[in-house]
Amino acid sequence: MSSTQNLKQRLEAVNEYERTPIPKNKLKGWKSFIGTYAGEHTAGTEFVLGPLFVAHGASAGDLVSGLIVGNILAVLSWAFLTGKVAVKTRTTLYYQLEKIAGNRFTLVYNLVNAALFCFLAGSMIAVSATAVGIPFNLPMPSLTDVYPNSVGWVVTVFGIGAITTVVAMFGFNVISKFANIAAPWMIMIFIAAAVGVLPRLGINSFSDFWPVAETTIWNGVPLEGQSKFTFWHIMFFAWFCNMGMHIGMADMSLLRYAKKWTYGFSSATGMFLGHFIAWMASGILYSLFLIESKGSLVFAPGPIAYEAAGIAGAVCVVIAGWTTANPTLYRAGLAIQSINPKWKTWKVTLFVGLVTTIAACFPALVMQLLEFVALYGLILMPLGAVIFLDVFVLRKMGLASNYAELTHSHFNPAVGITWVISLIFCLGLNIYGGIEIFFLGLPGWFVAVIVYLIASKVIQKKSLIKTATYTELNY
Amino acid sequence: MKSLLKIISFIALAVTLVPSFLVFKGIITPELSKTLMFIGTIVWFVSASFWMNASDENEEAEN
Asked: Which one of A11, A114, A116, A221 counts the least CB within 10 Å of its CB?
């Protein structure tokens, strides 16, 4: 057998159970989720988000307390919302939504979702490129750049994009294995890079840390042109920066492999290693950069990490970006594949990888990352509320779950109405109420819940509800 | 063999982390710390790839 045929057979053999519940013998243990969450959330974004708190003038006390509370709320959301739904249904978000909302609705949703995932993965490929470009003296993009600034940048991005795509083509197992290996090492690099530069910030003993943290690193003064972050900003940011994944249910794709819903608590590794230690570490590195560059507004994660930790630091930026881009690309592939299940997983992922890599060439993607992450979670949130209600609440109210499947309908208007009204409500709060985007998720979720229950009550036909039958999974 | 590889891996992680604390205490230079971190990185990825995923496969086989 030729190596080409062998490769094709291996790719065709990748079966990710897109339209069937995960069989019992394919469930995964704790280690797989601990490694995946730790790797995914100790990632390229951490090199951007940690410095954000420094730039927005977070005080040290607000930062520590806000991150602890926000991360705990995020872990609880993963376990009690995503974990419970994923284990009960054992399906992907996309297939579950199709059963509830109909295939015409999910076509639109999946296209929106796949585009969001592509942009997120693309930004991480670009972050990796800032490190790969160091030995080639690659001109780094600046905050105001929109288009690629050199041929070298495009070539670098395409190289990283190709590797990321090939790995994602081989499915969840390969991604999970790499994340398992990289995760413990990455967190060591984040800690080591920050500890190694502490003397340059005037910290020469552990007792020096907190006074310097309060007065120098997170001094509570925002950079010019940046808004001031309080405890509430930090808490809601920590809770909602992955809103699409937990409240929005995107992580059903991962947690459907869990033996128990409590495996959702394994997201704590990602939150407290990535969204606590790594954010603080990257904040320390950025604060030092601001001091030594006398307030320069240039921002390139690769060179900052290289300056602090040498080659290992630069490699960390590359791999951190990669371990975020990989599962994100995998999710985007699932979203596109649900449009036409006959498409092969690896072919879809190849296409998604190409689109993502082209997007990654545009530096504007990275520079607008904060706004993008907020919007991404907010757009997916109402459908997460719909899925949760459909799985756990509707039947208790005498209504039917999976209404589109039951009625052989291509579109369940209750879901469409919920999505549109929730997002219009959030937009109104933002424009007319002046409420910042990170605070919109909470009121928006309750609006989605109320609208979906009322719309379902009005739209569902009683004769069909009585004939509905359900298959329960008992593992 | 697997135990030996695990020991090597954990030593590699230590070599990645500990030098920065020695820099913090003023015992070694930042340049030496960066070199040690790079060595620790290489040894970690080489050694851990032999046992970390093997452990997962064993766990799945037991299910």
From this structure: A221
